[in-house]
Each structure stands twice: as C-alpha cells, then as structure tokens.
Amino acid sequence: MAQEYDLVVLGGGTGGYVAAIRAAQLGLKTAIVEKEKLGGTCLHKGCIPSKALLRSAEVYATMKRSEEFGIDKSQLSLNFPRVQERKTQIVEQLHKGVQFLMKKGKIDVYEGIGRILGPSIFSPLPGTISVEMRNGTENEMLIPKNIIIATGSRPNTLNFQIDGQYVLTSDEALSMEELPKSILIVGGGVIGVEWASMLADFDVEVTILEYEDRILRTEDTDISKEMRQLLEKKGINIHTGAKVLPDSIEIDEGVTINAEINGEIQSFSGEKLLITVGRQANIEGFGLANTAVEIDRGVIKTNSYYQTKESHIYAIGDVIGGMQLAHVASHEGILAVEHIAGNNPQPLQYSLISTCIYSNPEASKVGLTEEEAKSQGYKVKTGKFPFRSIGKALVFGESDGFVKMVVDAETNDLLGVHMIGPHVTELISEAGLARVLDATPWEISQNIHPHPSLSEAIGEAALAVDGNALHG
Fold first, then answer.
1. What's the pLDDT score for residue 136?
2. For the whole prediction, is pTM greater than 0.85?
3. Which domains does the chain carry?
C-alpha cells in the first residue's frame, strides 16, 4: 500500500536529516530514504571520522614536543588501531544520536534505494518514489507532495583506478588498518592539506602534488603561503604546478607516478597514493530522467529557494554544487523546508558563511579574500596581527599564524577575515557574526576580548587596519 507524505527526503546525510527535522517541527508528515546509514558522508566518511583522526594526530604531535612543557616523553608510542577504534566509537555515538532524533520527530526512515517515478496512476506529476528496501522485502511506494533531493557527492578519482590498497580516495584512507611509511597526495586543496597534516603528524613521509601554482587556491594568498611554509616545516614535500600523469602509474609493493613540472617529467614514489581532487555530485540512479529537473555542469540546477524546474522537487547540499559543506547543506535544507511550508524565508547569503580547514595549523575564513575584493573593484586596506604576539598562544605552545582583515577603504566595511593558527576554526564565528551584523573594524575593536585569550588577535587585527595595534 502506498504511503502519503508532505515531504520525502532522498538522502539522510547532514543536509537531509536536518531538513527532515525542520519539516517535522513545522508539522509536515516526513520520511527519509537512505541507502546506507543516516548521517551520510559527513558522519561516516568525511567530517567526523577525519576530524577524529586529526585530533589524535594533533595530540600525538603535541606529545612529541612535550619536553617543551616540562613533561618526559620517554614512553611515548602511537597505537594506531586504538586511534581508529576511537574514531569508530565517536561515529557510532553520533549515528545513534541521529537515529534518536528521527524517532523523536516521528520521521519515517526507509532503508533502501529510492527512485523517482514519472507520472503514474499514483500521481499526474513525476515524484512518486519507489524504494528498493535494503532488507530485501517488497518495494515501498511513497507519494509525497514535495521531495528534497539530498543525495550528496563522492570523491573525484581523476581517472585513477581506486584499488583500496595502493590507490585510495579519502573513503578508503579512513579505514586504513596500518599507517604507510610514505604517501603521495594528489591535490593540495582542503582535503589534501588536512590529510597531509594528519599523516605527517603521525610520522608518515608525505608528498603533495598540486596542479595549481599554490596549495589552497581558494584561500587568501597570505594564508596559502603561510600554510605551505608551516607544512614544509613539518617535513611535507610540496610540489605545485604539477600535472600528474595517471597513465604513468606503476604499482609494485608501492606506487610510482610521473608528474610534469615546469615542462619536465619528474617521478615520485610512495607506499600509497591518495587522490584528493574534489568531489562530484551523486545525480545518477534515482530517477532524475523521469523528471524535468535540469542538470548544469554535473550538478542539479535550482533557484535561490532550492526548487528545481519541477516546483515540487527541491535539491540541496553537494548535489547542487556550491560550497559543498555540511553546515551549508543543513541551512539549505532548512530554507527549502521553510519555503515548502510557506514561511517566506530569505535566501542564504553565501558570502556570510564561514569555512574551515582542520589541519594543524588550522585555517578559517569568512567573506572575500584580498584578491577577490580587488578584482571586484574595491579599494582595499588590510590589518594583520600575528599569534606570536598573543600571550595565550605562547602558553599553548602554538604561536604560528595570524589573523587578517580585508576592509573597504572607502566605507570601512568589513569584507573578509582570514585566520591561520591555533583554534581558528572556533575563533572564526566571531568574525562571521561581525559580517552578519555588517560591523566595521572599529566596532570589532570595541568588543573587549578577555586576557589572556587567543581571541585577542581578532581585536588587534581590527586595530591594525588603521595602524593602531597595541601589541604589534
């Protein structure tokens, strides 16, 4: 018997399950169809497990220098199976939490593959969903008034054959039972830098091969330069302008591959090869061809309320491209649901969304880089303040990095904030709020930051915009 719903969400990742929770709060009868596990990529193959490993790597790296803090490190050793066990425990705890939230919201969860059907006896519009149940029982038929597609993304493979042993994406790397002695990482974006930092802190010999002229190409140039310097300080080998040649790969108890750099072919070897060259949207296998939904450059095309060309079908998260971040997908889902409910939400302002890199050191940003601001015609002034002048950073033993503000010289509006250093993925929220409130550097400087605290660097950077930093 077909089940009727106000909303069916295809995909139970962060965007999908948050959208379902908001729909239930608004009184919509809601269901989720998930082919694997609730929580999706972020919980099981991305954000949470990778950050759990990064935290272990950070602790290990700190303990290796514990004598700086007056602590004997003579018995220090790394138990990598225990590191993986801790990661799994965290993921399982959060998975149970998501399952509880579904029960609390009275949200029906169908474990299987959902496919959108064309017009049928059930509905004159495309949108009836046939669910091939994972437990092998008869297909379930769902008749929703509205659909949200939240099917996420998967790693790009750059035409490499992923064997899971020698050639990996982040999906396979998260399940490594042993650490390699060396690894080649193709891609110096956010994912590549996080993995490089983590593995280097675990004493793996790391080489990054990046196609662009610098790592972290989407970050402010000053952040990119500082990150490269600090990663190289860890012993990471970084090669930019490197065009990797997939056809040159050789596997024999390790991986050897060639890359063209400055017109010359160079050979690189490691025990494993990790491909971190972005992600591609999951747009196949769930019946889009039965609808009028448009695909543009590999992602689903939507309006600012996440409606597709089929007005009752919405799409959010990685499957529509954009920032491809869990917190972005969640808020897209909330907005889509509120539009379905007729609440007239305001479209998201993506320039106000903070982004983070969880490497060691961390990096974060909100708003425009200096280069972007200038390219958009702004007359720019900047303020920068180093963590080495902050007492709490010295106490922490982590004084590399800085806070940088990009400001419109004519209006004094804050255009962007960029940070690299200790715990900046937490500090960035203050800058994000300043952007939401359209604060000026002077207004930020009037927020009296506690002493000693890392946040003092934000106040000092605000003062530095007009040359008035007190401690630098």
1. 82
2. yes
3. 3-154+280-350 (3.50.50.60), 157-277 (3.50.50.60), 361-464 (3.30.390.30)
For residue 419 the two structure tokens come to: 């940070």
Q: From its phi and psi, is residue 203 left (phi > 0), alpha (psi between -120 and 50) or beta?
A: left
Six-digit token pair at 201? Answer: 């802190």
Alpha-carbon distance of 341 to 28, in angstroms, equals: 8
Alpha carbon of 75 to those of 71, 139, 222, 384: distances in Å?
11, 57, 39, 41
Q: Flag residues of the chain having pLDDT under 50.
A: none
Decide: 277 and 210 in contact? Cβ < 8 Å.
no
Nearest residue to 404 (alpha-carbon basis) of 450, 366, 372: 366
Cβ atoms of 111 and 132 closer than 8 Å: no
Token duo for residue 332? 């897209």
327 is catalytic: no
**Which residue out of 423, 449, 451, 471 is catalytically annotated?**
451
- Bridge partners of residue 239, in order along the sequence: 209
Backbone angles phi, psi at 15, to 5 degrees: -65, -45
- Closest residue by Cα to residue 463 from 446, 450, 449: 446
Say what the pLDDT of residue 122 is. 64
